Amino acid sequence: MHAAALTSPARLWSAGEVLARPGPVPAAPGVYGWHFTKAPSPSLPAEQLLYVGITPRHMANRTSTQNLRTRVRYHFRGNAEGSTLRLTLGCLLGFELRRVGSGKRMTFGKDGEADLTRWMAEHARVCWVEHREPWTVESDLITRLDLPLNLDQNRHNNFHARLTEIRAQARQRAGEPGSLA
């Protein structure tokens, strides 16, 4: 797989385009990359690839059933509990992470998730590359590319420690009494 398909794609797609029916995103396995017209943090660049993800995930005893279409659409309109990208963006943008119910589930609450969805609709752009076994290229991409919003397998990135700290602080605040959504 050529990393240039993600770093310098021929086309970037907006939330409106991705969420339209039938929409351009294929229901196929692959790798997706996120670019932002405005960086979610002043210490990050805009207008370049900041995060990559794969779908489906390949685990020891099974492979998830998601595909590019379901995963990319979820990132645009889901919640922080089901999207590491949304969790990271919301924390960087200063949205308040909250525990939901009595369990460990955390989101930015109804209003925060709606605000994040609007921010992403305005500033997030995505591209993708179909790949039959995307888990076979994920490590290589994260190692070779500067992807400050990826945490997994990315300790070598200069932003990793700061992002880890920001997310940990948000989780800690969400665990404090009175933080239930």
UniProtKB/TrEMBL annotation:
Residues 47-168 form the GIY-YIG catalytic domain. It comes from the Bacteria. This is GIY-YIG catalytic domain-containing protein.
